[in-house]
Each structure stands twice: as C-alpha cells, then as structure tokens.
Design brief:
- The structure is a single chain.
- By secondary structure, this protein is an all-alpha fold.
- The protein has two domains: 21-192, no CATH class; 199-384.
- It contains 14 helices and no strands.
- Helix 1 runs parallel beside helix 3 (83-104), helix 9 (230-251) packs antiparallel against helix 11 and helix 11 runs antiparallel to helix 12 (305-328).
- It is globular, with a radius of gyration of 22 Å.
Length: 395
C-alpha cells in the first residue's frame, strides 16, 4: 500500500508492538548508501597506508558511523513509514552519498565538504526530533536534551569550516565528543522513551554485515590482479576464513541484553555495548584493506611494515572489541564464563600484535595463516565449551 501523504511521527515502543520489530525494506535500502560510503573510505585507506591516512580514516569513519546510529535510533522510536519519513530518509541518503564523494578526496580536499554534509545530516536529525516531540508530548524532555546536545555539535562542525587545519579537526573531535556524550547524560529521560530492544541489535548487526562485506571485497580485489596459483588461492581462502570467523564470533552471540539497562536509566552499560561497535566495525573495515594488500603482494612476499601493522592491529582491535562486547552480554553465561571468553579474545589480540612485531619476515601467506589460526581458535573455543545458564537481565 502507498504511504499516507502525512502521517505524524508516532512513538513506537516494544510493549505496544504485536511482534518483535524487524528491519524494513526502506531501512535495508537506506543501508546501501552507507555501503558505498564505507567502500570509498576503505579505498582511500588502501591508497594511503600511513599515520596520516589512518588519522583521516578515523576522522571520517566515526562521523559516518554516528550518522547511521542517529538515524537508526530515531527510526526505532518514531518511524511510521509515511511519505515524509521516506522523504527525510531520501534527503539523508543524498547527504551520505555526498559524504562518500568527499571521503574519496581525503582530508586534503574533502574535509570542508564533509563537515558541511555531517552538519546537514545531524541538523536534519534534530529537525526530525523536533517534529516528533511536537506530536508526542511524552518525549518532550528527551527531544529537548538531544536537540541541545546535537545542535551544539552541529554548530561546532559548521564553525570548523571557517577554521584552518589542524584546528578544524579539533572542532570536529569536540563536536563528536558532545554527540557521543549526549545520550550518556539522558538517563531518566530514556526510561520513558526507550529504543526497541529487539530492533536495535538487528540494525547494529546489519551494519556489522556491511563492513564484513568490505572484508570480502578486499579479498576479491587483492586476488584480481594475481595469477591463480595454489598459494595465491590458499591465501585468499584463508582471508575469507578470517572474515567468516569474525562473522561467527559476533553473530553466534549477539543480542541486545546490555541495552536492557536503559529501562532503569542506566546508560553506561547500554551505551558501552553500543560504542564498542565503533572499534569493532572500524577494525573489520581496516582488516579488509589489510587483507587486500596481503593478497595483492603475492603469497611469498613479506608485507611492508605499514601493511603488516594495519592488518595485525585491525584484527587485534576487532578481537578486543569482541572481548568487551561478550563481557557485557550477560545472556552468554555466568560472569566467570564471560570473563574466560573475553580473556581468550584478548589473548588472540595480543598474539596478533606480537605477530606484527616478530613476524616481519613472514610472507603474506604465513601472516594470513597465523591470524586465521588465532581467529579459528576462538571459534573452536565457542564450540567445545558449553555455555552455562545465566540469569536473565532484570528489566
């Protein structure tokens, strides 16, 4: 059925839903523009393997991820799939597509345009919250809180356009700090207007799939210009196996149990769980770039220092983020089991760093193989160690 011409934002809460929320077709289509943006960002990092390139990657990735999070949390509360909801989604997609164009040019040529795009996206989100607050008085406090925090960040990003580098990026980081801390201070306001505890984990998982797709693309890109020898094919298969292991480790245990603490206004655990997905997804995207270079170098050629450190540190970052996420996921089992699980994850992360330090003469095939072993051990641990029954989190 076609959407109504005007359907005001309606507060949606789990208790009032007939069934668990699921991603809509619009949300899945909406994600495609972020696929393109992450792809452009990965392509930029691939061509700029340096500290400056990594800094650019981080300064671009965090705002892109936060735009996606902001739109997701708004939609999980207020999306009514009306005509204006779809038009707002289209405008946001146009802005994110423009961000992808500016990301392609890096900080040297795309930073001003990127800042304007981010400010426009977040300003549009503030407008959506204002409209939703008008039609849903119960949300007035939360809307005001978000509008002040997010609005201040928008002003800093707009102001950064008139400031030369590197101070421009200082304003970016200040704006991001305000953005990320605003939900942390919402507390009791979220108790009245919580997000969907079934919809958010699914949406977060879908973004994780997006960056895992970049890891797969990295393998294909790396192999595309090589002769199809047995060693090259083995390296590619092991690279895909690493991506598969990371998928397994995340989706075998993902749930939204840490979000349940929002019901009591305890934002620390809930948002720590959410924010751990930032290094997780950034690390997966970086690992995809690292895999591309490992394979493209040829299986018998040792990688350069920059390639080696990017790949190993990316895997270490992902495993460390998984350790934190699994520690907070109380439905995984008892605290002792979760502590053991997290310790194994951190142990493999340390192994990846040690490999970067000690394995400078290892060929690409050996490097990929050893990191596949590190990730594969985590999967084996999940299979052979049964999960003890854990108490369900209190609402």
């Amino acid at each position: 059925m076609p959407p109504a011409i005007w359907q005001p934002p309606t507060l949606r809460q789990d208790d009032a839903e007939d069934s668990d929320r699921r991603a809509t077709w619009l949300e899945l289509f909406y994600d495609l523009v972020f696929v393109a943006t992450i792809s452009q960002l990965s392509h930029y990092l691939s061509g700029h393997l340096s500290w400056a390139g990594l800094l650019s990657f981080g300064l671009f990735f965090v705002p892109i991820w936060w735009c996606w999070v902001g739109a997701t949390f708004y939609a999980t509360r207020f999306d009514a799939d009306g005509l204006f909801d779809r038009l707002f989604a289209f405008m946001e997609m146009v802005i994110v597509a423009a961000m992808a164009v500016h990301v392609h040019h890096g900080l040297g040529g795309g930073d001003i345009g990127f800042a304007l795009c981010y400010a426009a996206f977040r300003g549009l989100l503030v407008l959506q919250y204002q409209i939703a607050g008008y039609y849903n008085p119960i949300t007035e406090g939360l809307v005001r809180h978000y509008s002040v925090g997010f609005g201040l960040s928008v002003l800093l990003w707009l102001g950064s356009v008139f400031v030369p580098a590197p101070w421009r990026y200082v304003l970016w980081m200040a704006g991001l700090l305000i953005d990320l801390s605003t939900p942390l201070t919402a507390g009791r306001l979220v108790v009245q207007v919580p997000p969907s505890f079934t919809h958010v984990p699914e949406r977060v998982g879908l973004f994780t799939i997006i960056v895992l797709g970049e890891a797969v693309i990295g393998v294909v890109r790396g192999l595309s210009n090589l002769d199809w020898t047995l060693a090259a094919e083995t390296t590619a298969v092991l690279g895909l196996a690493i991506a598969f292991c990371l998928w397994w480790l995340y989706f075998d245990s993902v749930d939204g149990s840490p979000l349940q603490s929002m019901r009591a206004g305890k934002m620390g655990t809930a948002l720590s769980w959410l924010y751990c997905h930032l290094p997780l997804t950034a690390g997966i995207a970086m690992a995809g770039v690292g895999l591309e270079h490992m394979i493209a170098n040829g299986p018998t050629t040792p990688p350069e220092q920059a390639e080696l450190w990017l790949f190993c540190s990316a895997i270490a970052l992902v495993l460390s983020a998984l350790a934190a996420i699994h520690w907070m996921t109380c439905t995984l089992g008892t605290p002792r089991f979760r502590r053991s699980l997290s310790t194994y994850r951190l142990g493999s992360a340390l192994f990846a760093i040690a490999l970067a330090i000690l394995g400078t003469n290892l060929p690409s095939l050996g490097m990929v193989a050893w990191l596949m072993v590190a990730c594969g051990i985590q999967v084996v641990f999940n299979l052979i160690k049964p999960r003890p029954v854990a108490k369900q989190p209190q609402a």
